[in-house]
Amino acid sequence: MSEKRSRWWRIGGTGLAIAVIAVVFAFFLPKIASYASVWDVVKGFSWQEWAVLTGATILNLATFAPPWMAALPGLHFRQAFVVTQASTALTIVAPGGPPVGMAVSFGMLRRWGFKPAAVTLAVAVTGVWNQFAILGFPVVALALLTVQGGKNPLLQTVALIGLAVFVAAVAGFAAALRSDREAKWVGDRAAELSSWALHLVRRGPVTWAGSALVRFRHQTVGLLKRRWPALTLATLAGHLTVFLVLIVSLRVTGVSSSEVTAVEAFAAWSIMRIVGSVPITPGGVGVIELGLTSLLVGFGGKNAEVVAAVLVYRALTVLPTLALGTLSAATWKLHDPERA
Questions:
Q1: Contact 282, 17 (CB under 8 A)
Q2: Which of 72-76, 163-167, 201-205, 273-277 has the lowest mean pLDDT?
Q3: Distance between CA 210 and CA 214 in Å, rounded?
């Protein structure tokens, strides 16, 4: 794609994101509940409720670091926390989204003396495990909702799609780790599929092929043999503490379990984890608020209380990371392992 066309794509994408955010917050959310009624809910919080919300937020922030500690031997909690906060903040606000966050993580860890191969492996493995979790949550939510006796057509559709992609991804990942020949075949097919998808949006083909996956296999097998349980548990904890912030926000705003059960909240949250991973707006701003509100109201939550809960949840899972990420990006050199 020419530089001029690429620039117009970026301008168009930025304009679309701004338009979506503006329409959601200026039109759609106020139609569900006025901001005055939402503020009435929030200002009624007791100090105990603020304390519970703060505790859930701190716990969520603390779980950012362990997956990286599992994926990159020798990385300590403080360094992992700084890396994840800085990269996540840039992922939220930067036009490039996740690739920018990954590039920042790579650059910081390299400057701290970690070897390129180890850093690349950590970036790849944490990314794969996060995608496995995001794809698997709707399937779990559908099973729990079915046991509870509830039905949700949207959840069923998302869960079935997620299950199909999850099974294909796990099967491909397992095949890639089994042998060099299978890794090369999977890598070549993945490169062809990626190039085809890029062609649809007028982008050039990928520059990698199956040989890259063969090299990745050699590096990955040893790490996962030792650390896959820790990596799995740390990844699940990182995601589920985000859900904890949501369920606490619902309860303190007055959305009781008789209106929206924990399983229904988990179902709505798991759907939006997948939707939010599509880079329509930075950090899914606007898209997640509207989608999550609509789902929770559909399950039985009262409008003002649900909008208040969703806005509190989003504020507590985005704003602290933006603040800490900015501070981390400004001070990351102070956390050099040798200097420490």
A1: yes
A2: 201-205
A3: 6
- How many domains are there within the chain? 1
Spatial separation of the C-alpha atoms in residues 63 and 239, rounded to whole Å? 8
- How far is it, in rounded angstroms, from Cα 243 to Cα 140? 14
SS3 call for 255: coil
Choose among 174, 146, 148, 142: nearest CA to 161.
142
- Show Cβ contacts of residue 197 under 8 Å, excluding neighbours closer than 6 positions: none
Phi, psi for 131 (deg, rounded to 5): -65, -40
The chain-wide mean pLDDT, for the chain, equals 83
Q: Which domain holds residue 90?
A: 3-335
Q: Is 340 domain-assigned?
A: no
Q: Which H, E and C letters describe 168-220, residue by residue?
A: HHHHHHHHHHHCHHHHHHHHHHHHHHHHHHHHHCCCCCCCCCHHHHHHHHHHH
**Which residue from 106, 183, 239 is spatially nearest to 231, judged by alpha carbons?**
239
Tokens of 327: 């501070």
**Using one digit for the tens of pLDDT, what is the confidence trace for 87-139?**
888 888 765 566 777 788 888 888 888 888 888 888 888 988 898 899 888 88
Closest CA to 170 of 91, 226, 227, 228: 228
Residue 146 lies in a domain: yes
